[in-house]
Design a protein that fits this description.
Blueprint: E1 3-13, E2 19-29, E3 33-37, H1 44-51, E4 59-64, E5 67-68, H2 73-78, E6 80-83, H3 95-105, H4 112-121, H5 137-149, E7 155-159, H6 167-182, E8 186-190, H7 194-200, E9 203-208, E10 211-217, H8 218-225, E11 228-234, E12 251-252, E13 258-263, H9 272-281, E14 286-293, H10 296-310
Parallel strand pairs: 3-8, 3-9, 6-7, 7-8
Antiparallel strand pairs: 1-2, 1-4, 4-5, 9-10, 11-13, 11-14, 12-13
Length: about 300
C-alpha cells in the first residue's frame, strides 16, 4: 500500500520555549482511516495545522503525496481537505457561492453536479441560497465539511468534526467518511468521541504532551492491551469475598450479588477454571456468567495515565 503522508521528526516550539510537538514520526497509508486521540493540549491540532500549511514547523519534515509541506507547499496543500474545529465563514455570503469559491481557490474547474451531490449528502441543498449568518451552528459545520470536500482531496483532515453537533449530522458525517474511504481517500481525524474512533478507524494513534505514544492497528491494540472481565452473578448475596478467594482479587458488587474477575486473555492461563472450582468449594452457587473486554476509551485513559506517571 502506498504511503501518502510521511512525517519525520516533526517539531514545533513556540516563543518562550514551549514544545507543542516533540519529534513526531508517522507514516499514513493511502486509503486508511487514522484516529488521533489525546487530551486537550496534546498537540493534535498543532500537527494537523502544520501538515495543512497553517503553521510552520520548527524542525523535521513531512510530505503529502510525495510533496514537501514547506518546499512544495502548494502541491501538498492541493491534495488536502481540512475541516477545522473553529467555524470561520463569511456571514453574508450564500452557501452555494461559498462552496464554489473554495473549489475555485484550488484551481478546479466548475462542476455543478459535484457541488450538488456534496450539498445533498450534507442536507444543505435546500439551504444553498441561504446566507451563512442565517444558518444554525450545525448547518455551519456542514458547510465547513462541504468546503473541505469540494476540491476532491486525496487526504482529508477532520479536527473534532462532530464536537458539539447534533446526532443527525454525526451520523451523516460518518456515512460520508465511509464513502470517501471506499473511494480511496485517506482520512485523519481527531475526536473526543472515542466510540466513533473505535467504530470507524483502521489505526489509532495516541498523542500526549506533544509526543506520539503509539500508533497501532485498532484491533491489534485492543487485543494487546485490552483486558477482559468476568462477572459472576450469584444466586444468593454474600457479605464479603471469602478469604480463600483473596488471590483472585475479586470485586464485590454493591448489591452483594455479583463478583468481577479481571484477567489477561493473552496469558497462558486465565485462571477462570480454578476460580470456578474455588467458588464451588466455598459453597457459592452461580446464577450466570458474563464476559466483557476493555473499550478503546479505557485503553486510551490507561496509556495517558501511564505516561504521566512515568514523567
Amino acid at each position: 500500500m502506498t504511503q501518502i503522508v510521511e512525517i519525520t521528526d516533526l517539531r514545533k516550539t513556540y516563543k518562550g520555549g514551549f514544545e507543542a510537538l516533540k519529534g513526531i514520526d508517522l507514516t499514513i497509508q493511502e486509503g486508511e482511516i487514522l484516529a488521533l486521540l489525546g487530551p486537550n493540549g496534546a498537540g493534535k491540532t498543532t500537527l494537523i495545522s502544520m501538515l495543512c500549511g497553517i503553521t510552520t514547523p520548527s524542525g523535521g519534515s513531512a510530505r503529502v503525496g510525495g510533496h514537501d509541506i514547506v518546499a512544495d507547499y502548494r502541491a501538498a496543500r492541493s491534495l488536502i481537505g481540512l475541516v477545522p474545529q473553529e467555524v470561520a465563514l463569511e456571514p453574508f455570503e450564500k452557501v452555494l457561492n461559498t462552496i464554489q469559491f473554495s473549489r475555485g481557490v484550488f484551481g478546479k474547474p466548475k462542476d455543478d453536479a459535484l457541488i450538488e451531490r456534496i450539498l445533498r449528502q450534507l442536507s444543505l441543498w435546500d439551504k444553498r441560497h441561504a446566507r451563512i449568518r442565517e444558518l444554525s451552528g450545525g448547518m455551519k459545520r456542514r458547510v465547513l465539511i462541504a468546503k473541505a470536500l469540494c476540491h476532491e482531496p486525496r487526504v482529508l483532515f477532520l479536527d473534532e468534526p462532530t464536537a458539539g453537533v447534533d446526532v443527525e449530522l454525526r451520523r451523516d458525517m460518518w456515512q460520508i467518511v465511509e464513502g470517501l474511504k471506499a473511494d480511496g481517500v485517506t482520512i485523519i481525524l481527531t475526536t473526543h468521541y472515542i466510540e466513533e474512533a473505535e467504530a470507524i478507524a483502521d489505526r489509532v494513534g495516541v498523542i500526549n504532551k506533544g509526543e506520539l505514544l503509539l500508533v497501532e492497528d485498532k484491533s491489534a491494540l485492543m487485543a494487546r492491551m485490552g483486558r477482559k472481565s468476568l462477572r459472576i452473578d450469584l444466586r444468593e448475596a454474600v457479605k464479603t469475598v471469602p478469604k480463600n478467594l483473596a488471590e483472585y482479587d475479586l470485586d464485590l458488587a454493591k448489591d452483594n450479588l455479583s463478583l468481577t474477575y479481571n484477567y489477561d486473555a493473552r496469558g497462558e492461563g486465565t485462571g477462570i477454571t480454578r476460580l470456578l472450582q474455588a467458588l464451588a468449594k466455598e459453597g457459592l452457587q452461580l446464577r450466570d456468567l458474563h464476559t466483557s473486554q476493555s473499550s478503546l476509551e479505557e485503553i486510551f485513559v490507561g496509556l495517558v495515565n501511564e505516561e504521566e506517571d512515568a514523567a
